[in-house]
Design a protein that fits this description.
The chain is α/β, with parallel strands linked by helices. It has helices spanning about 45-50, 50-55, 140, 145-150, 150-165, 185-195, 210-215, 250-260, 290-305, 305-325, 335-345; strands at about 5-10, 15-25, 30-40, 65-70, 70-80, 90-95, 100-105, 115, 130-135, 175-180, 200-205, 225, 240-245, 260-265, 290, 330-335, 355-360. The chain folds into two domains: about 5-150 and about 325-360, Alpha-Beta Complex (Quinone Oxidoreductase, Chain A, domain 1); about 155-295, NAD(P)-binding Rossmann-like Domain (Rossmann fold, 3-Layer(aba) Sandwich).
Length: about 350
């Protein structure tokens, strides 16, 4: 294949896309060209696009001021190499664009993993610049290919969220309220909290009416409520609110009802990406965006290099081994299939029990 294909998204209008084709580049010294074999598409990728300027996700695979490539987690194969130690045919796992190919510039190549040292990525969170060499990984990880793409990045966030709560003594909460409770990151967090050997908090899930049955079937929430039933929550209970939806209306409703008993209001994602964001003061904790790399960075200092990621991967594998039975994996191939799946995800039409795996070519 002498061309590569990109599925670009308008940075200011996620419903607007274009498919672009370019000549396949040759790697410069120290670079490799990687064919993106398959990748997962989840609501997390929509969150990447929504926060693309705030967090810097548009900067990983830059296009221009108006268009961007949404980052995804997946597998790729080296198809051209000018980097000693990485040969043609080498398989990689990591952060890729919604495209058929990408050029990487590995830093010091060792057994596993390596970091992309491309100039435009050096100021970006290192967590996303890490690429695993698949041949060096244990067989139990290799056996969970689709689940790894679909679930591990989300469950790694679940793990570090759980760790953040534990690291801060739950902020004094006796109840954890999780918004967009049918999402996979929410499930992972609830799973970890529910199975903690010293569980001390009630876990309550908030979801839309159409997802109540599915969310209850996950068997990780003590209670499941719809967004319009927030007032059913008992007042006077210290509550940590972990919100995957990003909806200002939901944040406001919870603050109006629970007030100063909201001891933590942490925004993790934006499944309700088109909803108005929260503005103004609150009686309870001020809503703040949870930046997973910051807690990973803290644990790098606390535990030593790489320990937090090893623990996150181990937790992800444990959660995924149970969650895989709840997941119907659908595969799509071709730029049009990628575009259609993206628009379905943006519109919130992808069922929560469906995992989407794609390839641009």
């Amino acid at each position: 294949m002498n061309q590569f294909v990109q599925m670009q998204v308008a940075r200011k209008d996620l419903h607007t896309t274009r498919i672009q084709t370019f000549p396949l580049p040759q790697p410069a010294e120290g670079e490799v060209v990687v064919a993106v074999d398959r990748f997962a598409l989840t609501a997390n990728n929509v969150s990447y696009a929504v926060t693309g300027d705030l967090i810097g996700y548009w900067g990983f695979f830059p296009v221009d001021a108006d268009w961007g490539l949404v980052p995804v987690w997946g597998y790729g194969t080296v198809v051209a190499s000018a980097c000693p130690g990485l040969d043609i045919g080498e398989r990689l796992y990591g952060f890729f664009p919604m495209a058929s190919h990408v050029v990487l510039k590995p830093g010091r190549v060792r057994a596993d993993p390596f970091i992309d040292f491309a100039d435009h990525r050096r100021a970006l969170p290192g967590l996303y610049n890490l690429y695993s060499r698949v041949a060096a990984e244990p067989p139990e990880i290799a056996a969970m290919g689709d689940e790894r793409c679909l679930l591990f990045p989300l469950f790694a966030t679940s793990y570090i969220l759980s760790d953040y709560l534990e690291d801060n003594a739950m902020f004094g909460a006796s109840r954890v309220l999780i918004g967009s409770a049918s999402s996979k990151t929410a499930f992972g967090l609830a799973w970890l909290l529910a199975r903690a050997p010293d569980k001390t908090v009630e876990i309550v899930g908030l979801t839309s009416p159409g997802n109540v049955a599915f969310t209850q079937s996950l068997d990780v929430y003590d209670r499941v409520l719809t967004y319009d039933k927030v007032e059913a929550l008992e007042t006077g209970v210290p509550t940590a609110f972990i919100d995957m939806s990003g909806s200002g209306a939901v944040i406001r409703a919870i603050d109006d009802h629970l007030g100063e008993n909201v001891v933590l209001s942490s925004i993790v994602g934006a499944t309700h990406w088109d909803a108005k964001r929260h503005k103004g003061e609150t009686r309870g904790a001020t809503p703040t965006f949870f930046f997973a790399p910051a807690q990973f960075g803290k644990r790098e200092q606390d535990w030593g290099p790489g320990v937090a990621m090893v623990r996150a991967q181990s937790a992800s594998a444990r959660i995924a081994s149970e969650a895989r039975a709840l997941l119907e994996v659908r595969h799509g191939r071709g730029p049009e299939a990628v575009r259609d799946a993206w628009l379905e995800m943006v519109d919130g039409r992808t069922p929560p029990a469906v995992g989407v795996m794609l390839s641009v070519v």
